[in-house]
Amino acid sequence: MYDVIIIGSGAAGFSAAIYTGRAKLKTLILEKGVIGGNTAQTDLIDNYPGFPFGVNGVDLMEDFRKQAERFGTEIEMDEVASIEEVAEGKKIITSSGKEYLTRAIIIAVGAKRRELGVLGEDEFIGRGVSYCATCDGAFFGNAKVAVIGGGDSAVKEALYLADIADKVYLVHRREGFRANQTAIDKMKVTNNIELKLNKVVSSIKGDSLMESLVLKDVNTGQEEDLSVEGVFVSIGLVPATEFLAGFLETVDGYIPTNENMETAVPGVYAAGDIRVKTARQVATAVGDGVVAGMAVTEYLKE
Ligand code: NDP
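That is the input. Now the predicted structure with NDP docked in place:
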């Protein structure tokens, strides 16, 4: 029986665990994919306070993990399949068939990368199509690659790849960007990044490896073939909260909470990108995690 099980090992999950661990609550983190979540797949985090020259995402999350473990947090790699209310508290059932009992839960699962949904995308995953430049960029030294999207992730990926690849095309479906202005300005003066604006991807073509993207102009409908060896899809996030079906209501997959990170189910909290919120940043995920950790501690005292 755990006092609290935290689902997800990103910035929010570890921050919550540092607080519940320090409060001597028996804490387990369940993680289905990458320890450190999306942050651990980011090369340079330039806006997390306390690091005047930026910090590598893997290094930052490794320190979060060590700090949470120092206060007794256990970590297990498993995917949550469903949650049930039981007499003793809450039961978490994982896809490997394990069952865990806990008095409280913090959901900090973040959100996963959105897919384009075009012909060739699935076929060429790992053979040109990627969702993470930090993970796969090194395969594209001296190659031509494209990044799709106009948010912070896409611009960051383009800047990262510009140091590795020969040429980077940034393909975006309109002229305005969501990304922060500092990053946009930097991208615009980077010689080997070329903007392809008002374009969407119609399909991804190739043979054994991907060879080109078919781009469609959103104004004229005209199509062009863009020869690239790799494409990095950075078009936002989608929540993965299917495991909450029948247990907790979501809004477009995101979890509504109050300012104490409490959800509609007593003893169940949500923190980080998976919450209904506007700012999805490492710093705000940390804030959510801290609040959730403190709120759970109070709840369990009662
Ligand atoms: P965003 O939702 O911010 O941006 C997604 C981008 O993809 C938008 O430009 C959008 O276009 C475009 N897009 C969405 N769907 C499609 C589609 N089907 N085809 C083509 N283009 C599409 O996602 P991000 O992943 O960039 O960022 C997620 C959150 O994480 C944001 O809050 C962001 O600020 C934060 N973040 C912060 C970083 C930082 O260093 N501060 C780094 C990375 C992320 P349109 O604009 O037209 O809707």
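The pocket of NDP is lined by residues 47, 114, 116, 148-154, 156, 173-174, 178, 200, 234-237, 280-281 (CB under 6 Å).
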